[in-house]
Amino acid sequence: MKKVQGNDSFQRINYLHQVSKYMSMKNPALSSYYGNLIVSIAKKNVLKIHPDIKRQMCKKCRCTLIHNVTGKMKIRNKNKLKFVVWTCSICKTERKLPIDKNKDHTLWVDKPEAVVEIIN
């Protein structure tokens, strides 16, 4: 059986993300602290944070964004492109994510050529 490098760090990042999501409803400052821990663990172990986790975090204060709790979500059109715009209610930072159906906006992680090896 092959061991995955940084497996314990990935588990810790996953746990901290869940705790950050839970605490964002009660204490956004504590959620930001857990978000900072996630980023520091990833940097220290030279790991990439999964894009789904990254998209749920504010880029400035690193609080977990939840609709109508810690952030506002709006859909905007600009030059025939659609974007989801998240606005953090703590630091007022905006974040744009493309959502156009006609264009191919799939993440590289989700593409079949990204999978090199499956470890059981």
Largest sheet report: 3 strands, antiparallel
Classify the helix fraction into a percent range: 25-40%
Question: Ends: how far apart?
Answer: 8 Å
Number of domains: 1
The DSSP helix count reads: 3
Number of beta-strand segments: 3
Shape: flat
Strand content: 15-25%
Which stretches are low in confidence, meaning pLDDT under 50 for 5 or more residues running? Answer: none
Rg (CA only): 16 Å
Mean pLDDT: 88
Sheet/helix structural class:
alpha+beta
Reading the helices and strands in chain order gives HHHEEE
What order do the strands of the largest sheet run in, or round the barrel if closed? 1-2-3
Task: List its traits.
single chain; 120 residues; alpha+beta; three-stranded antiparallel β-sheet; tRNA processing; Rpr2/Snm1/Rpp21
Describe it for me?
GO terms for molecular function: metal ion binding. Keywords: Metal-binding, tRNA processing, Zinc. InterPro entries: Rpr2/Snm1/Rpp21. Belongs to the eukaryotic/archaeal RNase P protein component 4 family. Pfam families: Rpr2. The chain is α+β, with helices and mostly antiparallel strands and 120 residues long. The protein has one domain (7-114). It contains three helices and three strands; from the N terminus they run αααβββ. It has helices spanning 7-23, 28-44, 51-55, and strands at residues 71-78, 81-88, 94-98. It has a three-stranded antiparallel sheet, with no helix packed on it. Helix 1 (7-23) runs antiparallel to helix 2. The longest helix is centred in the N-terminal third of the chain and has 17 residues, at 7-23. The protein is flat and about 45 Å long. The model has no long low-confidence stretch (mean pLDDT 88).
